[in-house]
Design a protein that fits this description.
It is a single chain. The protein has 102 residues and is an all-beta fold. The chain has one domain: Tumour Suppressor Smad4 (Sandwich). It contains no helices and ten strands. A hairpin with a 2-residue loop joins strand 4 and strand 5. The chain starts with a strand and ends with a strand.
Amino acid sequence: MDDNASFQIDLPTVEGYVIGRSDDALQYIPDIDTSKHHSFDKGVSRRHAALVNLGGVPHIIDLYSANGTFLNGKRLAPDHPYPLGEMNKVRLGTLDVIITIS
């Protein structure tokens, strides 16, 4: 089983993308669904984090997730945008994700 997830993401042009896990009972599917990476068991919230375009620069925002969002080893404060580089080591709960921005 692969414990890491890797996503190639284009910079959001309007509002942004929600990263999280789908929930069949609530019929919820986030823009970027981490479910195939066993994200429920790894503490990923349904609406865990958001990727947004602020002034042409991609940012990540923790959406008050239960188990936290980490960028390059640092825990992010909820509802605060953090700029992303070309390659980013992100942890959603205990799910390690590499996000590259193109």
